[in-house]
Amino acid sequence: MSRLLPADPSPGVASSTAPPVGTAPPAHRFRPEVQGLRTVAVLLVAVYHVWIGGVSGGVDVFLFISAFLMTLSFVRRIESGSGPQLGRYWARTFSRLLPPVVVTVLGTLVAVRMLFPPDRWYAAIEEAAATVLYSQNWVLAFNAVDYYAADTSRASPFQHFWSLSVQGQVFLLWPLLLALCGLLARRTGWSVARVATGVFGAVFLASFAFSVVATRNEQAFAYFDTRARLWEFALGSLLALAVLRGVTLPGALRLLLGWTGLVAIAVCGLVLDVQGSFPGWVALWPLTGAALVILAGHTGDPRGADALLSRRPLLVLGEASYAVYLVHWPVLVTYLVVTDRAKATLLHGLLILLGSIALGVLVHRLVERPLRPRRGPRASLHQFGIVLLCVALVLVPVAGARAVLDRQAQEASERAAVENPGAAVLTGDLSWERDPDVPTIPNPLVREGQWAELPESCDAATEEWFDGYKVACSTLPVDPDAEVDAMVIGNSHAEQWLPGIEAVAQDRGWNLRSIVRGACRYQPVETTDNTECQELIRLTDRYIEEQGIDVVFTTSTVTADEGPGEQIAPGFEQVLEDLGSRGITVVGIRDNPRFPFNMVTCIDQHGPDAERCNPPRAQKLAPQNPAEALTARHENFVSIDMSDWICPDGTCPSRIGNRWVYMDDNHMPRDYVVTMVPAFTEQFDRRARQLPSG
Fold first, then answer.
1. Does 481 have pLDDT greater than 50?
2. Nearest-CA neighbor of 497 among 645, 596, 616?
3. CB neighbour list of residue 673: distance below 8 Å, 6 or more residues apart
């Protein structure tokens, strides 16, 4: 989430009177400027989500504040001799965090079931489970979610829980580190603060270095990676340790620091090019701003930034900021799905913001505040019971929904041969009429297994060769006597043809391996600006040379989501020349159409016969395969064109033979591709008679 903990009068943040003017507030006193800073952070996050998009730095401020307050509390407790009391802390913390989370998750699931298209139900129940298990950030990281995506309507309504997951993981780790600091302090005779400074300084340096490198190399993954975020928490802890030593600054300097920090936080996303930069070194900007505000503390001067941050409306909203953060994103995404918009209008965005604040305040007052942990001899046992109940309230219905969806998918799969012939209906040999009571497959709720792959994983040597490049690596069983070694390379549009390519290789007795990565088309390195793809292409070229590959399968054209725009893939003719000079045959497969919308969602929203979901072929593909002209100039080129099986009769439909042709806006599911295999192999045999048969 963003704001670590709901407001709580526990040690370290206890309510008290303000400190005397001209002194920094002691660690145990209430810090109204920190509470107000939480309000600023949550409003920045919501405003950027609703209208601007991208990163505001507000989440980073929340992470920083949470570590600051936690470290103050723990170090003071350990120094007083009461011990870290880990079990009590974890029970108290998660029993406070989880109830508003569960209410938000269950409410969001209801909204998804009633208002979202069916193709998003399955992902929603999976992410709901990840949310209460504090693993949502890893789900998003391994799914390569783009946090900067322009179309928020396609985002998960649970996406914002990534930061809550990171915080939950740190809430488990940080107390252990602080307890270790207390143990080392007793063993060495040093103060806890001194030991903790060394420990968190080391965490800061290691995580910061990792974050900078990871953000540069693979920002989409690093954004959600806990390891790349630990330095933000460590910096908050280091500030807390500095405050514990006592900081006394001149009043004029504190006025300057407070306003400098607050302005820096407010303008971070406006003056910095944050696109693809977080959580690397750029995140130092908002964190430094937060540190300056905290160091300025209570000035007692009406001109100070703390005077603004301490105003009652900001303090009241700061108390409910946790709940406001939880609800604002599901409200926004639901609005965008219902209205079929990519962004909110100015007026609607204002209503979303005000509605989220009102709803968040209700959740705070009706759920968060009444269930605040009580103190007493059996308090911890009661709090652990709340934690278990909260987790069960989500996991039990989620498991039940998953079982129902899986059963429906299995039943549809068992009937598929008769009721869902797919491309087989285009041969004219099959007498078939669509039964409106038979569901179209694959079940849009279940995407697992729809990405094609070969039956075996690549050997250890091949995996090691491409280690670090996140390729999908699979192979047919290796035959040492095979005459031909073939390879599928390129992006996901090459990968989706694996069922047909696999059939070709098996018929001819070839060895076949697949090394593909989404968004990395195989092309000359100078024709792409993606540095990761450039390195992968160079590595693939060396692999082809060393392994003695004879035949390469890839895509020969590229289509556009708006308008026809089909053309020969960038640098494809140079690929033919380079591989041809090495005696390698290239099988180029014509690209399939792309759309500016999800085809499954289109049918759900507009109906299966809507023109929008069944655009004319002339709008998506060139009249003739652009790559066909290259066959006369390159003897090593075999051109495959399956467009008649994707866009028959002058139309590019979303379903054929009761099977979805697309599982999103540009990829075909395996369940449809397998029905094209006979046509694919027939065309290949006809066009590639000169190739060895094994």
1. yes
2. 645
3. 452, 496, 497, 498, 499, 500
Q: Give the Cα separation of 108 and 158 in Å (integer).
A: 8
- Kind plus residue range of the DSSP H or E element containing 115: helix 86-115
In DSSP terms, 486 is beta-bridged to 512, 551
**Average confidence score pLDDT of the chain:** 87
- The token duo for 246 is 């006592």
What's the one-letter identity of residue 210?
F
How confident is the model at residue 603, as a pLDDT?
Answer: 81
Distance, in Å, from the CA atom of 652 to the CA atom of 616, rounded to the nearest integer, reads 6
Q: Tens of pLDDT along 43-64?
A: 999 998 898 877 788 899 999 9
Structure tokens of 38?
A: 């939480």
Residue 284, token pair as written in the block = 């130092």
Round to whole Å and give the CA distance between 419 and 40. 57
List, in order of start, the domains of the chain with CATH numbers: 32-397 (no CATH), 456-596+623-645+670-687 (3.40.50)
Tokens matching residue 277: 């930069």
The letter for the amino acid at 31 is R
**How many Å apart are CA 488 and CA 495, to the nearest integer?**
7
For the stretch 555-580, pLDDT in tens is 999 999 887 789 999 999 999 999 99
Q: Tell me what pLDDT residue 199 has.
A: 96
User: 288-323: per-residue pLDDT in tens?
Assistant: 999 999 999 888 889 989 999 999 999 989 899 999
Residue partners of 12: CB distance under 8 A and separation at least 6: 27, 28, 69, 70, 72, 73, 74, 76
pTM for this prediction: 0.72
Phi then psi dihedrals of residue 557, to 5 deg: -130, 170
Residue 616 per-residue DSSP state:
B
